[in-house]
């Protein structure tokens, strides 16, 4: 009898301890979440610097000279140390940042088709969400796949996707800002290809970047592009027909040109920031600096951004809150780009749409990273999904089923350069991540089916729209 009692007592004590631990955890978690301030009614300025590598930015690489202006700004920001893009390409990656779902769900690609897949109509974008709440909305993008034909214009009062760089976009934005009445809340989206290939900065920076590389094929080709009337037409000739035969000097020359573009972008961001500060906008606005993917310079034998290694998926993410609240906070946990939309809405005191994958991460900002937080991404190329990626800070799995590259597993903790593929030995440490990826496959399938009804291609969309108009659903 005593033994039974003793066992019962032990169970009671254990149960009480467990309940206490749960209660303490919940209290602590609530406290952690509540200690993150919210800014209802604040404006939001969302700056996407296309193709900006994480390690090109001073706050991440420790070299002040890389981006001195962003370095100063970062001191006033929440710095996300391990932000992971949703895809290696512009269209799908931005669509995920706008909607809070993976590319496998929204289906937007860097398409070559005449009737491309749009962001599903039934899937709200951040611009639509804020416009519904009375925000004035404004977007200036540098074109390419970030255009209205993929649905990126949805929710914006003013949307333009002319390729003209920050030097044109900043004055246009400031002029629009100066016309806003009564400090109305606004959402502004600015996107630039300033650091994208063919890496042409201004003449002085460009020539300085080529010093020491004059004899390389890169120098010859990039000069030809810089001197041509239309970079967009000739830009691709930097890579076509010879990218596989790059020498290490070619890669270094390309990286030097890229760094010059980063410097130029940084100077422009510095100008914009000062203008916003002098107008008092930063007291009542959040500012986000992010990129949609990185860029390769020979780490895995190639250039540009067609792969899914960390030099492509890890991106800078800085969030400057009104009045520089929480400035200097560094978030070590991995943060997927699909969390960006719900997290920003939460900071603005607004609920996120239901039935999206992304979740506000504010309750985790002050929670230490375990290194086991899983994030997922998709490798895409033009109209194809080439595979899924699952990643923690310890392991990374490339699941390219049906693709010649098949499965690749890297132990990031000991091999951050992703050089040694361990897939053949099926490492036990990666097993849990594989199981999580399997679960994600079901999530993507279910959500993709849910949003299927909202799918429309660029061609059918207009007729659908006209039809809805005729039925009185659209004014
Ligand atoms: Zn891009």
Rg measurement, Å: 24 Å
Ligands, ions, cofactors: zinc ion
- Classification by helices and strands: alpha/beta
Q: H/E order of the elements?
A: HEHHEHHHEEHEHHHHEEEHEEHEEEEHH
Total beta strands: 14
Low-confidence stretches: 463-475
Notes on the structure:
By secondary structure, the protein is an alpha/beta fold. It is built from 15 helices and 14 strands. The strands form three sheets. Strands 4-3-5-1-6-9-2-10 form an eight-stranded mixed beta sheet, sandwiched between helices. Strand 13 and strand 14 form a beta hairpin. The chain is globular, with a radius of gyration of 24 Å. The C terminus is likely disordered. Bound molecules: zinc ion. The site of zinc ion has 5 residues, from loops.
How would you sum up this structure in a few lines?
The protein is α/β, with parallel strands linked by helices. It contains 15 helices and 14 strands.
Keywords:
disordered C terminus; 14 strands; binds zinc ion; 38% helix; single chain; 475 residues; alpha/beta; 15 helices; eight-stranded mixed sheet
Q: Topology, pairings included?
A:
Blueprint: H1 2-34, E1 43-49, H2 58-61, H3 68-74, E2 78-84, H4 90-99, H5 103-106, H6 126-132, E3 136-140, E4 158-160, H7 165-179, E5 186-192, H8 203-210, H9 217-227, H10 231-234, H11 248-278, E6 285-290, E7 296-297, E8 303-304, H12 310-313, E9 314-320, E10 330-336, H13 340-347, E11 375-381, E12 384-391, E13 395-400, E14 406-411, H14 431-452, H15 458-470
């Amino acid at each position: 009898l005593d033994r039974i009692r003793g066992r019962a007592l032990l169970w009671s004590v254990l149960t009480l301890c467990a309940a206490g631990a749960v209660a303490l955890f919940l209290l602590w978690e609530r406290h952690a979440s509540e200690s993150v301030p919210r800014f209802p009614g604040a404006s939001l300025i969302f700056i996407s610097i296309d193709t900006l590598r994480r390690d090109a930015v001073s706050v991440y690489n420790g070299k002040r000279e890389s981006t001195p202006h962003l370095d100063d700004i970062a001191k006033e920001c929440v710095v996300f140390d391990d932000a992971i893009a949703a895809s290696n390409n512009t269209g799908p990656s931005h669509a995920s940042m706008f909607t809070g779902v993976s590319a496998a769900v929204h289906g937007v690609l860097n398409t070559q088709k005449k009737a491309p897949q749009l962001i599903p109509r039934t899937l709200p974008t951040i611009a639509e969400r804020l416009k519904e709440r009375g925000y004035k909305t404004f977007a200036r993008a540098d074109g390419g796949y970030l255009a209205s034909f993929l649905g990126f214009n949805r929710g914006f009062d003013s949307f333009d996707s002319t390729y003209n760089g920050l030097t044109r976009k900043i004055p246009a934005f400031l002029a629009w800002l100066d016309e806003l009445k009564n400090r109305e809340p606004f959402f502004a989206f600015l996107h630039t290809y300033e650091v994208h290939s063919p890496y042409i900065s201004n003449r002085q920076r460009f020539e300085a970047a080529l010093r020491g590389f004059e004899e390389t094929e890169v120098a010859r080709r990039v000069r030809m592009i810089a001197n041509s009337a239309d970079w967009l037409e000739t830009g691709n000739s930097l890579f076509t027909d010879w990218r596989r035969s790059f020498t290490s000097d070619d890669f270094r020359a390309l990286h030097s040109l890229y760094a010059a573009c980063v410097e130029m972008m940084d100077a422009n961001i510095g100008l914009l920031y000062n203008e916003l500060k002098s107008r008092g906008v930063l007291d009542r606005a959040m500012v986000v600096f992010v990129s949609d993917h990185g860029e390769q310079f020979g780490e895995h034998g190639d250039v540009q951004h067609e792969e899914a290694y960390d030099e492509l998926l890890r991106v800078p993410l800085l969030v400057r809150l009104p009045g520089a609240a929480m400035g200097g906070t560094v978030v070590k946990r991995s943060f997927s780009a699909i969390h960006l939309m719900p997290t920003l809405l939460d900071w603005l005191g607004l609920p996120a749409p239901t039935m999206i994958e992304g979740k506000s991460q504010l309750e985790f900002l002050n929670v230490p990273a375990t290194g086991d937080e899983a994030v997922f991404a998709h490798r895409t190329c033009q109209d194809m999904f080439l595979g899924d990626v699952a990643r923690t800070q310890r392991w990374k799995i490339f699941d390219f089923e049906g693709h010649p590259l098949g499965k690749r597993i890297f132990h990031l903790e000991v091999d951050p350069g992703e050089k040694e593929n361990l897939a053949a030995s099926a490492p036990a440490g990666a097993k849990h991540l594989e199981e999580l990826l399997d679960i994600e496959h079901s999530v993507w399938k279910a959500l993709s089916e849910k949003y299927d009804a909202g799918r429309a291609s660029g061609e059918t969309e207009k007729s659908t729209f006209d039809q809805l108009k005729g039925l009185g659903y659209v004014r």
